[in-house]
Specification:
The protein folds into two domains: 3-159, Oxo-4-hydroxy-4-carboxy-5-ureidoimidazoline decarboxylase (UraD-like, Orthogonal Bundle); 171-277, Transthyretin/hydroxyisourate hydrolase domain (Immunoglobulin-like), CATH 2.60.40.180. It has ten helices and ten strands. It has helices at residues 3-8, 11-19, 25-33, 40-53, 56-63, 76-81, 90-107, 120-130, 135-159, 234-240; strands spanning 171-178, 183-184, 189-196, 199-207, 213-214, 226-232, 251-257, 263-265, 268-271, 274-277. β9 and β10 form a beta hairpin. It is flat. The two termini are 32 Å apart. The model is unreliable at 160-168 (pLDDT under 50).
Length: 281
């Protein structure tokens, strides 16, 4: 829906929509009562302020609305957020299940992490690291992860109702050329993010095909003007090519989208010790 539509809903309907973003009933009620919002940034900032004005009872209610990492999700949003688990190895899945059990036994609630854009391995490392935290520290860390999830979902909520009035669909695409090998870099993970205020929100993820291209990063959305960032997992790619200690663990390209009727093709020319980019077609 649009922000104007959210502002115009009655209290009960607004709370119902906001609960999709955060499972705390008191948070949703307070956010609905604070309408109207002047813009997406004002909505996100208010969401943060309301969240931190609350306490563990509200936080735990929101945590309980999530499935465990690796479990089948009931909503399309959660499935997309946890998409990194889909490529997990059997060992990683087993360790995630065991870690979830240990975490719940230690802290009394499920492991909460902002999973968008993270691989199963990255989430597993965070889970195992956080098991060592003191309970009073961990609940605030978990609450901050919920805050990040809420901001991402608020952006999704507002995006769902944006009108599609363009005959030319704006896209962000990329391809990666391995200049050392003289061919496409195949199988490299690429993440697309969009900056909202001071926060980066992942909005697309893919892997380069046999031609080194990723064309699906924005296939389900229309672009808004703003600043975007592509992150290329160059470290994993180079290790798979036999380079044991890659110099660049990742490559990031930040760029602006101003004309949303255009196609933005942002390639990466990569070697073990350097990379470059340009605006392509």
């Amino acid at each position: 829906m649009t922000l104007d539509e959210l502002n115009a809903l009655d209290q009960e309907a607004a709370e119902r929509e906001l609960l999709r973003c955060c499972g705390s009933a008191r948070w949703a009620q307070t956010m609905a009562e604070a309408r109207p919002y002047s813009g997406a940034s004002a909505l996100a900032d208010k969401a943060d302020n309301v969240w931190w004005s609350m306490g563990p009872t509200d936080w735990l209610e929101a945590f309980a609305a999530h499935p465990r990492i690796g479990e089948r999700a009931a909503s399309a949003w959660t499935t997309g957020e946890q998409s990194g688990v889909q490529d997990a190895s059997d060992e990683e899945r087993a360790r995630l299940m065991e870690g979830n059990r240990e975490y719940e036994a230690r802290f009394g609630y499920i492991f909460i992490v902002c999973a968008t854009g993270k691989t199963a391995g990255e989430m597993l490392v965070l889970l195992e690291e956080r098991l060592a935290n003191e309970p009073e520290d961990e609940i605030r860390i978990a609450a901050d992860e919920q805050r990040k999830i809420t901001r991402i979902r608020l952006a999704k909520l507002l995006h769902l109702g944006q009108p599609v009035a363009k005959t030319i669909k704006s896209m962000i695409t990329t391809h990666v050329l391995d200049t050392a090998r003289g061919g496409p870099a195949v199988g490299m993970t690429v993440i697309l993010e969009w900056r909202q205020a001071s926060e980066w929100s992942p909005i697309g993820r893919g892997a380069t095909d046999e031609h080194g291209r990723v064309t699906t990063l924005t296939e389900d959305r229309d672009l808004a003007p703003g600043t975007y960032r592509l992150t290329f997992d160059t470290g994993t790619y180079h290790r798979e090519q036999g380079i044991s200690a890659p110099f660049f663990p990742e490559a990031r390209i930040t760029f602006n989208v101003r004309d949303t009727d255009q196609h933005y093709h942002v390639p990466l020319l990569l070697s073990p010790f350097g990379y470059s980019t340009y605006r392509g077609t």
